[in-house]
Amino acid sequence: AATEAELQLAYARALAGLARLSDALARYRDLLRMDPDNGVYRDEFRRVKGMQDKMAEGDDAMRLQRFSAARRLFAEAMTLDPANEAVAARMRAGRARSFQLQRKEALDCETKLLDAQREAKEAEEAVREAQKRLVQAGDRLRVYSSRNERLQTEMAADEAEHPAPEDPTPVHLQPAQACRAKWAVCLAVSEASAALDLDA
User: Which UniProt keywords apply (predicted)?
Assistant: First the structure.
């Protein structure tokens, strides 16, 4: 009859063969507690633990989008026990998933690249248009600055050559005259407003 240790070992191997590595490791730990010096237990425990570690590292690499590293780790997990079909199937599925995610990332990257190129082109066109407007504004500034300077010079020369006549209105009447002029302007504005209202 098989001993308890033999049954436990067979069970651990069956669990490992189903890729239930955590459960298999728990059985191997029980066996090692019963017989710490057993080389078979230690070797099989290390092999199963190695597969589990490589699988976990591969999954972590996938989450970090390190797809090449993930595939390498999955391949290393399979080499630890080439006869384990369940583990090999999981690793092949992981590799396929890594390629799928990598292709999706490449497509997303290509889309974003095209968007960035379009935005860069639009920005370049906007910069060129702004530079064009800046040049035009600078040209206008120079033209009108020169024209203003020329007009100011001509006006100053004319005023110096032909000074304005003094106001003949006596000084004590000038404020009243200014007031009448302002009142005349107000009346003109009022009449113009009324005319506009009638036209409307």
Answer: Repeat
DSSP H or E run through 182: helix 174-199
- Domain range list for the chain: 4-115
Q: Tell me if the pTM is above 0.70.
A: no
Instruction: Convert 83-92 to b/e letters by CB count within 10 Å (16 or more is b).
Output: ebeebbebbe
**How far is Cα 179 from Cα 141, in angstroms, rounded to an integer?**
40
30 contact partners, CB below 8 Å, separation of at least 6: 8
CA angle 45, 25, 86 (to 5 degrees): 90
Closest CA to 44 of 74, 24, 61: 24
pLDDT digits (tens, 9 = 90+) for 24-66: 999 999 999 999 999 999 999 999 999 999 999 999 999 999 9
> Using DSSP, how many helices (H) and how many strands (E) does the chain show?
6, 0
CB 115 within 8 A of CB 86: no
